[in-house]
Amino acid sequence: MDTMLATKQGMQQTFVNNARVGASVLMAGPCVVTQVKSEKKDGYWGVQLGLGTRKIKNTTKPLQGHLKGVTDKTGTPRFLREVRLKEEPTQKIGEVIKVTDVFAEGDTVDVTGVSKGKGFAGGMKRWGFKGGPKTHGQSDRSRAPGSIGQGTSPGRVWKGKKMAGRMGNSQVTVKHLRVISVDADKNTLSLSGPVPGIPGGLLVVKRVNERKEEPSE
User: What is the reported pTM?
Assistant: First the structure.
């Protein structure tokens, strides 16, 4: 298992090699296994992980039936995400996965989440356009996008043209962040650099470095 679910807590400053760096603090787990996928039945190997708690009265009846094996008096898992595996999983339904079972200090991880929504944004904010000239009689072109294409040929705007539109609120993956520290008591994970989303938002953290096996004596 190389993936866990986490929620963003915020950012802080820490020192790494006598240099001050910004660190993101995540509440990673504990995650509970809610479903196990098999290659024979489903066509691939994988596990479904649950994180957090939701009141039973706020959970739909079909989902209550799906989570029957991991539901207790406190409620059902709030977040559910599936993780594909390259080999047959050893985890069982109801098994709890802690942060120290997956990550260690010095690991490299990729973090996926939904970025903050910015609403309808112009070309300068959304794509970093320079804008028009501030002189030569220009009065209302300072933040305009400028030309959006050619003339009679092709006579249309090319698909994918960078223009004003909705910004943010999309899935973003930040790659190759380093694990600065792991706190087993608080279930927290400290990563170098920022991660997408709002505080309390769901994140999928995947370890991408290969662990070196200890030489046998």
Answer: 0.85
